[in-house]
Amino acid sequence: MARYVRVATVSSRQAGAEDSPEGQIAANRERQRTLVERACLDKPDIVCMTEVITWYGLERSRLPIAAEPLDGPTIQTFSEVAREHHCYVIVPIFTVEDGHIYNSQVLLDRKGNLASVYHKIHPTINEIEMGVTPGAEAIVTDTDFGRTGFAICYDLNFRDVAEGNQAHDAEIVFFSSMHAGGLQLSIWAHDFSFFMASATPGSESRIVDPLGRWLIESDAAYQPINVRTINLDYRVLHLDFNHAKLGAIKKQYGAGVELDVARPEAVFCMYSHLEDTTCDDIIREFDLETRAAYFRRANRVRTAALNGHK
Length: 310
What we know:
Elements: E1 4-10, H1 21-39, E2 46-48, H2 63-66, H3 73-85, E3 88-97, E4 100-108, E5 114-119, H4 125-130, E6 140-142, E7 147-152, H5 159-167, E8 172-176, H6 183-192, E9 195-199, E10 206-208, E11 214-217, E12 225-231, E13 234-238, H7 246-253, E14 257-262, E15 267-272, H8 279-285, H9 291-308
Parallel strand pairs: 1-2, 2-3, 7-8, 8-9
Antiparallel strand pairs: 1-12, 3-4, 4-5, 6-7, 9-10, 10-11, 13-15, 14-15
């Protein structure tokens, strides 16, 4: 049962230099708002911005000024945007909760209400020395279009963040960052079977499919906003034990089922474009096996073989 989602990411550097840190924060906020409003012209379901959007151009000592409560001016600003455009908005800022400062992604729903907050699990050494507290766990949030996960910048170097998103059945992970991530975005998407959508300063923000393929990439000068419609009714499967059934699936469903084969990796992504049949329905109907289930079975067979030789 097709679940089409229009995803937007916004790439931006700092606004022009201001005379005071408060002025710089306000200018950064307004620059981001302008770009998000521009992204909303394409009627996205969700918009994600770069890491700590109000921090650009500030010195380390200004962290206590930049950190905001969850009802602070930046969240209020983008709450209005979310309500006006009826879309989810991911607001990455330094937050302060119970006396602790976090590097966070704040998810606002279509009514501008707080949906969830993710705290960066792996701040950099510099961030921790500045006073940033590490987050405790991966967060995956149910939205009206699917299960949404999060990661921030340095998190991309640590598999436990990706594994946490996968364990909570994330279908798309939004990556707010100061660095582009490059190949790592595709590695996460491929290895953990979810879409990745990145928002980074300048160029090379990407939306990546679950096979690790780029769907779109930003350009600082000409295309700072990425927008793509994706389908979250998908499953990644291995070709082993499944490939002989693909012809029968196409004969049964035709254009209603898309089979995107990545032969070098021996996997394929199945998408349902049908109104009343999901990928999971098709998996049951044709006795298919997802890649994750296949790998689990392979490990069980291996373990049994090892135990049999003892």
